[in-house]
Amino acid sequence: MSKKTLTWAVLGVGQISEIVAPAIGDSDWAVPYAVASRTLEKADGFARRHGFSRSYGSYEAVLEDPAVEVVYNPLPNWLHCDWTIRALEAGKHVLCEKPLAEDMAECRKMISVSRQCGRSLMEAFAYRFHPQTAKVKELVSQGCVGELRLIRSSLGFPLDFGRPNVRLEPSPGGGALMDVGCYCIHVMRYLTEEEPQAVLGRSLGVPESGVDLTFGGMMVFPGGCLGLFSGSFRTAPDFQLEIVGSRGRLLVPSPFKPDPTRSALRLEVEGKTRDVPVRNGGNLYRLQVDHFSRCVLEGRPLSLPLEDALGNMAVIEALRSSSRTGRETRPVLDG
Ligand SMILES: NC(=O)c1ccc[n+]([C@@H]2O[C@H](COP(=O)([O-])OP(=O)(O)OC[C@H]3O[C@@H](n4cnc5c(N)ncnc54)[C@H](OP(=O)(O)O)[C@@H]3O)[C@@H](O)[C@H]2O)c1
After folding, report:
1. Theoretical Cys-Cys bridge with 219: which of 55, 103, 196, 246, CB 3.0 to 4.6 Å?
2. Gap between the Cα atoms of 101 and 78, Å rounded
3. 248 Cα–ligand 1 center, Å
4. What is the pLDDT at residue 35?
5. In a domain, 292, yes or no
6. Are 33 and 142 found together in one domain?
7. φ, ψ for residue 123, nearest 5 deg
């Protein structure tokens, strides 16, 4: 009989691992098994809270456990590449948090190790697994708003600057472009099915550390669609996606964390407005764990291939470079 579930482990006890752990427990294709923290007591508490049977006081120990089949890597961005590669080399499949790496060189290394080791690796953009996102894609692909002309998106929230936060670390992995801007870029590339031919970026509020607190970007897609976005740690909660075409526009509430139980899209076409309901999707993190586990178990390709992570990083790098030089920049995928 073929195998029905995969045994999962989590690296680090942090904000997002507390949210994803119940999703691992709820999945019919995953077994919550082990957790590792730099502090054993933290791992013990996490294991008790979420029904994991093993807790370890080091990340190495999890990788040495032969029962672990999938590693979920929600470590700070500067540790994504190193611990993902170690997990792949230990024979584990890896679901790694977004952004996959700090730059394209790291992304390429991770992709190459994943292929050499014959283990699956995916960047965790959970919004892509919710039916709301599928409905948006369907409406746009059917031409409900006509030809795509403009996509506006923003993701912002007020970060508590009084406490240490991995997002403010002075590394290439820190800052608003990497933490939240990456979502806006991702959704625009998905909807246009194109890579931008030119980008212009600008960072604001750069403190001593050199980390951007707000990042604004413009992307020009070859088919004639313009993408405008902002990511920020300094705004009131701000989650937007607006798709404007030659005939109408589509407004998407909470595009990156859709409501698990209900949501409705607003479609305005040639002066008429209607709400488009979206079916109950459930928890987006569970949908992501289901997808990853099922693809590995059934030997199917993941719907977020590694080329997609590399493409997103190419745009991020071009935007960073543009912000430094003040000039329009072309993302470069090869080389
Ligand atoms: N998909 C989403 O919806 C979503 C949401 C939030 C964040 N994220 C991503 O998840 C990752 C982590 O974000 P987070 O908000 O969960 O961060 P966090 O709360 O700071 O957790 C990160 C964990 O990494 C471990 N760690 C190892 N070395 C560290 C170091 N030098 N400094 C700080 N922590 C260290 C710590 O766990 P131990 O002390 O237990 O070892 C820490 O709790 C990022 O890549 C972020 O982009 C994704």
Report:
1. 196
2. 7
3. 40
4. 98
5. no
6. no
7. -80, 130
Report the separation in Å between the CA atom of 43 and the middle of ligand 1, taken as the mean of its atom positions.
14
Residue 132 sits in the same domain as residue 260: yes
CA of 17 to the centre of ligand 1 (A): 8
Distance 202 CA to ligand 1 centre (A): 26
CB 208 within 8 Å of CB 276: no
Work out the average pLDDT over 106-118: 98
Q: Categorize the per-residue pLDDT at 308 as very low, low, confident or very high, splitting at 50, 70 and 90.
A: very high
pLDDT at 206 over 90: no
Q: What is the CATH number of the domain that holds 144?
A: 3.30.360.10
Ligand 1: residue whose CA is nearest its atom 29? 76
pLDDT-derived band at 1 (thresholds 50, 70, 90) equals low
Give me the mean pLDDT over the 189-214 stretch. 90
Q: Closest Cα to atom 36, ligand 1: which residue?
A: 12
- The mean of the pLDDT values for the chain is 95
State residue 229's pLDDT score: 98
CA of 91 to the centre of ligand 1 (A): 23
Return the pLDDT at 281.
81
- φ/ψ of 229, rounded to 5, equals -145, 160
Whether 187 is in a domain gets the answer yes
The candidate with the shortest Cα–Cα distance to 266, out of 281, 276, 258, is 276
Task: For residue 225, give its domain range.
Answer: 128-286+313-325
Q: Is residue 291 part of a domain?
A: no
Residue list, ligand 1 pocket, CB within 6 Å = 12-16, 37-39, 42, 74-77, 79, 97-98, 124, 126, 166, 179
Measured from the CA of 166, which atom of ligand 1 is nearest?
20
> What pTM did the predictor assign?
0.97
